[in-house]
Fold these 2 entries.
Entry 1:
Amino acid sequence: MKHFTSVHDIGSLDKAMAAAAEIKKDKFKNYDLGKHRTLLLVFFNASLRTRLSTQKAAENLGMNVIVLDVREGAWNLETEKGTVMDGDKPEHILEAIPVMGCYADVIGVRSFAGLHSKEQDYGEAILNQFIQYSGKPVISLESAIRHPLQSYADLITIEEYKTVEKPKIVLTWAPHPKALPQAVPNSFAEWVLAAGYPLTITHPKGYELQEDFTKEAEIVYSQEEAFRGADFIYAKNWSAFRDPYYGKVLHADRSWMVDQEKMDLTNHAWFMHCLPVRRNMIVSDGVLDGPRSLVIQQAANREIAAQAVCQEILNHLISQ
Amino acid sequence: MKHFTSVHDIGSLDKAMAAAAEIKKDKFKNYDLGKHRTLLLVFFNASLRTRLSTQKAAENLGMNVIVLDVREGAWNLETEKGTVMDGDKPEHILEAIPVMGCYADVIGVRSFAGLHSKEQDYGEAILNQFIQYSGKPVISLESAIRHPLQSYADLITIEEYKTVEKPKIVLTWAPHPKALPQAVPNSFAEWVLAAGYPLTITHPKGYELQEDFTKEAEIVYSQEEAFRGADFIYAKNWSAFRDPYYGKVLHADRSWMVDQEKMDLTNHAWFMHCLPVRRNMIVSDGVLDGPRSLVIQQAANREIAAQAVCQEILNHLISQ
Amino acid sequence: MKHFTSVHDIGSLDKAMAAAAEIKKDKFKNYDLGKHRTLLLVFFNASLRTRLSTQKAAENLGMNVIVLDVREGAWNLETEKGTVMDGDKPEHILEAIPVMGCYADVIGVRSFAGLHSKEQDYGEAILNQFIQYSGKPVISLESAIRHPLQSYADLITIEEYKTVEKPKIVLTWAPHPKALPQAVPNSFAEWVLAAGYPLTITHPKGYELQEDFTKEAEIVYSQEEAFRGADFIYAKNWSAFRDPYYGKVLHADRSWMVDQEKMDLTNHAWFMHCLPVRRNMIVSDGVLDGPRSLVIQQAANREIAAQAVCQEILNHLISQ
């Protein structure tokens, strides 16, 4: 694996699941693999789970980790080409990224969608600039349109808790007070479908995701109908994708919250969410705190997914 | 030791002092003890000494250290149960803490008193939530009402500099321009009394500490009287504990500053303070810079105390 | 080497260049040298290159690294002696620095010129206080008036790319929208002259640097004349040094930008800049992106310079 930005970089999902299972048996088995290797984590947006789990994963492999918090506005990089830099931006991404590449063996980058321009967000400018200019392997720590480490962890979790070969997986939109990117649902759909699972997506009309991610999924506008017979319920809010409402909250219909009554429609389904989660907006306390909630297990598997990805990249570096 | 939040967790103080002395002989003797173990330090308040000394201590033991700066307001966690999370708090502590527990073997937490509500502060909500929900050993890096790593370091320092079996120790209130928590004096009293030393506490009327911490101490309202014959003077400001003035500065009487004239009343006493210290408010330049000041030695012993605590917790983890 | 604050601390530059070349052959050859040693990096100003390269260098030597971001205003240390600390500064540098010294084996400090007072800036108060009070070896990560790790890296780069024994090196002022310190040009001149290279400095009248740094250099007020026959062009902006304009932008004459037409006057010179660089203010896109630009190589050599300095300091510590 040269870079890790989507399910397309992972190769065989069967092998990826087997690699995860191996890591869980002994996290420190490959402690020598990362010796003298430095992972630089660059955060253009805040992070709790991703930062901690990726740092832990890299340390399990004996890597050094350097965290660079850029955050919104704190480090104002120029990205336009040909501009006269006489304003408030002291550095161009054309220098900043290769410089970071000088001091790292692997670079992780987090940069969320701005939700102002679909073209800009779906162009994944920052992630692609790191791939183009850093000269180093790049790991997406959530980009504008995908969150592949989360989806990898989600798939590990499904693998661990499924009781039938092909469980019915339902991705349900749920209400939230502010506009959120489509990265998690895009990516979840992409991974679940790549794994060959049937996927049902349910949301109010207008919240259709980009078809590239969902074309093999079944779209059902009735949440009740979608839930029937489900083995896994994956809840997540996202903002509208379709023009002219890109990045907008069309409405935050609270009747879409996942509660026990809805979970009772399912096949005793497991409940999943990537966290952070708004209690009693996305999901009721009862479901989240109940025995069928997998949210902490998903979070724990973030370390495993990150370690599997780092291992593959380190193996690729060594083989060069 | 499972958790470390007060002197009650330390067991025998004689053994704790002996452990500190052993560490000072060779800080790296137990370098293999922390291998593959991660210490997560979570700061809800700023830190210089605690962060640096605890990080250094953990690295002396071969641990990985991850620092998470939460700080005031930066990460707005919901703590109420049953609430509809439709406001500005994106994550509930019920998820955030177990998630942190996923990626750490030991968690250190700093969270100061808000000084708005005695019930809230003395309930130690944040520290207790980490103990209850993280699933991992928790070290207090200063809680609302105690600063046990400081007190442990203070006791090591007293042990090193005392010249009689039972020195007279005096804790004196001193003026400060803003309201400060009672954590350091509470904790100092608790440790000194647990060690079997006679403790005199002197402060203006109204600054009485919670009796749970001070009931075996002698309270003297005349600073001059208290200082007579003292072997150690420990200066610290704190705000009022008693209702209806909880968390308030009653007055900041500058005549309570520790100066050479007052030190001359003592038995050639050592001067102690936990730092940071307001010069010429709490203590005069002359006393602080003089040959009987132990403030830097106390700070240096913070590393030793933190290492002793980490060692005990690691030993407990291994024994499980 | 006890401290590293200028070229005067480096000893033989021939040996320093040889040490750098050795490190580039195998960065991890001295991985055991830094075992159980902690490098504390204290930043009073923001940093990208310096932080990452120094952290990487120290980790190449097996050191632990702790980064402390102080930044402007965030940590308000009192520096005046004898003052009554009843204002907004909770800690005096007389305690803060020795405390930091307790937990580190080596301390790196970055503190920029304020550009308000020449006396204050050229007195290098903060750097000197760390040397005086920390009790530990101190590395300048850019002080008010020098940036010696940058200059060391620059000299390594010149050594690698020169094709004649004594290349003609030109340091040229270039326009910038805001006032910048003189640390980089001061330091560059100091190192280039110490290496025995002929140095030409060109700038508009009024931008003369302090003579201590430049007295062996040739000052030429015509940029065109200076560039003729040059083998290396080092561009940098700086504010005025001479009274009564200390720290001021006299003018930002855009005709001083380095472009291809000017580079064509040289002896096919290499272009250098310490970064970050304002494109199309300091230098045109064409020159910066062209085949004779060494800016990324300079940045990469920052790691090498930092490692060479850390090695020397560690060797000195061990020899004590």
Entry 2:
Amino acid sequence: MFKAKVKSEVLKGIIDVTSPLVNEVKLNINSKGISLRAVDPAHVAMIDLNINNKAFEEYKADDIELGIDMDKLSGIMRLSTAGDVISLDYDETANRLIVTIGNLVRKMSLIDTAGMPDPKMPNLNLPAKAIIKASEINRGVKASEAVSDHLAIKVNKDNFELFAEGDTDTVNLKLPKDLLVELKSDNNYKSLFSIDYFSNMIKPVKGEDNVTIHLGNDNPIKLEFDIADKKGHVKYLLAPRIESE
Amino acid sequence: MFKAKVKSEVLKGIIDVTSPLVNEVKLNINSKGISLRAVDPAHVAMIDLNINNKAFEEYKADDIELGIDMDKLSGIMRLSTAGDVISLDYDETANRLIVTIGNLVRKMSLIDTAGMPDPKMPNLNLPAKAIIKASEINRGVKASEAVSDHLAIKVNKDNFELFAEGDTDTVNLKLPKDLLVELKSDNNYKSLFSIDYFSNMIKPVKGEDNVTIHLGNDNPIKLEFDIADKKGHVKYLLAPRIESE
Amino acid sequence: MFKAKVKSEVLKGIIDVTSPLVNEVKLNINSKGISLRAVDPAHVAMIDLNINNKAFEEYKADDIELGIDMDKLSGIMRLSTAGDVISLDYDETANRLIVTIGNLVRKMSLIDTAGMPDPKMPNLNLPAKAIIKASEINRGVKASEAVSDHLAIKVNKDNFELFAEGDTDTVNLKLPKDLLVELKSDNNYKSLFSIDYFSNMIKPVKGEDNVTIHLGNDNPIKLEFDIADKKGHVKYLLAPRIESE
């Protein structure tokens, strides 16, 4: 059983952080809330998302798994406007999710979750940590797209830095400690990442919201931020690119 | 002779309801106003439009027919802004319509009306009638486009209903009597229509305006609504699709 | 040496008037300001632009030439928002321009100016002059694009006029003297121009700003207007098209 009511913007927020990485996801639903963990088709990035049942207006659920086509759900949500309360109701017999927006009833078929994996979150030792307003990073990521397809993230005791280098042009964004919400780094750390992926992970974070970054040396990066009015939490993992020099 | 002045938004309104169905139309002009009746190229839909001369700021006309290319007129109207008063003047010698917007004079060639038909409005017996705010239907039509290419309209004593069914997904919009402006139906009626056409007919109606729907069983649907501040009236007819089961 | 700080909107203004005509330009920089003169690849139009050093927040320069890729600079400026102050710093060793926006440092390679010409401004005798608000002309140019690829500009003692003629349709915009800021013409003058080029030259002028037009008979047209809060000035020259009749 799964029966819930949720504000349009909360459901849209879940779609916004998930759909840049994966289209078909398995929602793990239980009485406490909803979680999903998925790896992108190229196995470069992972999303781990948890939403507390307090993010919902009404919530009632047993332990079930729902296979969702994010594109389809996103199309349905475009029919709603901010402030709408959406009803979600799992129809077990037909394996469909019944989405109700006002007087509109949309029955959406679900994907078979039988073949869908349960990826494990790898155990990583990422010694550096920085908490940054998303808006501070956005400009650097956008600028980097013009000169290269990968960027370096560096953290040391005093700065967070983003660096991209093309054949002739470079981009450098240096954020000193006083522009960061928090910086904890006992040494110099640096890893290289795909700009496409990094950009997809930063875009869903609203400009004024904080994003927590965990970094090591030639190691994956972990990004964390809250959604759904702090009643939900997202973790992204992105594998490093190895410098070819 | 045809010489008139009209507010930009009135002329744009005429284009908005006509151009989704037909591009080349014959305007029948006389001293009382302008009418047009046309069938779309696929012979699935008909538009019947009447504008009273009171919809114009100035109006002077003998009995004439003007062949208009709606795309071209629409392009000209994009040069105007809300509040502009447009002058229309028929130049009989050159068979052109002289459109004046402020200091700009645009002479537009007309289409030969010789070969253009005068379709007759068929005599239909459509027993059910519902008057609905356009905004109430719009969401249902948009949702239907995602699951099928046709939708069913149903009316009974208590509800107006719109239903679309794809291979796996469905859309249902049920509007009970108290959400309708008027409902008159002694029985259950249902007909099936192309979503593309139905969407084109509903889109030009502004959200808060009423649209009157006449329905029968496996019969055409008739939509009626006012334009030009109630000084103009539009009737659409749409042929049914026959259920193949 | 070249080291300057400039408001984002001033730099964007320079790009807006230049990039519709030429992509690669040579900036001639000296202690008084920056100038550029360039001919479009088809040799139909010329731009002559001068910016006083007073248009900058800070300005320090020796005599140098910088070869700029306008597309690239435009891409960089999209990272800035109105009110940003941009730092420009010429790195002579690497032949790069260092563009700093907030904490972002973008090093942009420059183009070799060795092969770039120094076009001379032709000496023209254009007897008619009209000063017009850009917004008055814009509608006429847009309307002309629908009927032809060239338009005529006419000036006489009483009017400024724009005229375009297609196979069946025409556009005419007549601005009497009292709608103009200034009109000085002792006779009738008329020249024909490419609409594409003329449109590219009028578009960068903001609607409420004045543009000064100098016209002769079958002669180039000269357009002049201020930018950068009157601390910069632009001259466009456009060669006439010869009427083929």
